[in-house]
Amino acid sequence: MVQDNTAATGGVLVARRVPEAVAERARRDFGAIVADHDMDAGEALAIVAEKGLAALVSGGKVRLTAEHAAHLPPSLRIVANTSVGHDHMDSAAVKAAGVIVTNTPDVLTDCTADLAFMLLLNACRRGHEYEATMRKGWRQGFGMPDFLGLQASGKTLGIVGMGRIGQAMARRAQGFGMKILYNNRRRLPAEQEMGAEYVPDLAAMLPRCDILSLHLPGGEAGTLMTAGNFALLPRGAVFVNTARGALVDEDALIDALKSGHLFAAGLDVFRREPDFDLRFAELPNVFLTPHVASATVETRDAMGFRALDNVAAVLAGKAPLDPV
User: Fold this and answer.
1) What is the pLDDT of residue 9?
2) What are the angstrom distances between the C-alpha of 21 and each of 25, 91, 300, 302, 314?
């Protein structure tokens, strides 16, 4: 079911469920068709074609392929993703077909870094095990050598991908007195490094990391964390991933966690979502969240609004704010 209030603005389809504030603006400003479910590419493009719409506000289920791009409705001018990532679609093929693709790169930086640091702390301090103990009623005392976690403050944090979110993670780590190393395609200007040390060779950085946190887009590095790279981390290291599940060889990660080579992990993203590898759920030394790094009222509203800002610019004949 969708609500069709299409006005003479070129026409907009919001092809995913969005917060009510975003839906209200889409209807008010564009007379948009707003879906009450997350559409796939076929359903969304059928409505765009039928209604002659100019803009598609897209979600992760709208997996536009090269085949879709070869047969896009001629009315379509922009696909506005409500996310930073756009690896769920063939952006290059869509752009080659003459359609603008946008994302929302700035609005979820702090929210994602907040959750990444939450994962870091819970992995270090055995958050899953502590919370599970309380849910079971506690009823058992612990002595000095029992149930020990790791102190996060003062540790060496390695950040892979020192973009907006990586830099926000570094700022949070500074508050914990951490030494910060980072690996990036290129060194940042000194004023953006915040005292962090640039290590151009990932293999050289990994043995120095007490904690490693990934902040790379998924399409740039392939499977970055292989068995070999996990082995380069010192025994007892902690691994955090809020970037992309595709960056990680999950079999290798599970082996490292089971063997004790890794003390713990904090994971928000997985190779298969939502049907993630349930072996992770069986491990006590993993703190898990269901890909919710951007899941706050403030950020989800901002993501939707930014996608609509891109739509407004294109429909007004202006350049998009966030072209991919």
Assistant:
1) 54
2) 6, 28, 10, 10, 21
Q: Is 261 a catalytic residue?
A: no
Among 67, 131, 273, 298, which one carries the catalytic annotation?
273
Query: And the tokens for 273?
Result: 């979502």
Is residue 244 annotated as a catalytic residue, yes or no?
yes
Sorted by where each starts, the structural domains of the chain and their CATH numbers stand as: 2-107+297-315 (3.40.50.720), 109-288 (3.40.50.720)
Of 88, 208, 279, 291, which is the active-site residue?
291
Strand partners, 56: 13, 79
CB atoms within 10 A of CB 162: 26
* pLDDT tens digits, one per residue of 50-103: 999 999 999 889 999 999 999 999 999 999 999 887 878 999 999 999 999 999
Structure tokens at 182: 């980072």
Note if 291 is an active site residue.
Answer: yes
* Proportion of the chain above pLDDT 90, given as a percent: 92
* Residue in 27, 244, 300, 306 annotated catalytic: 244
pLDDT, tens only, 302-316: 999 999 999 999 999
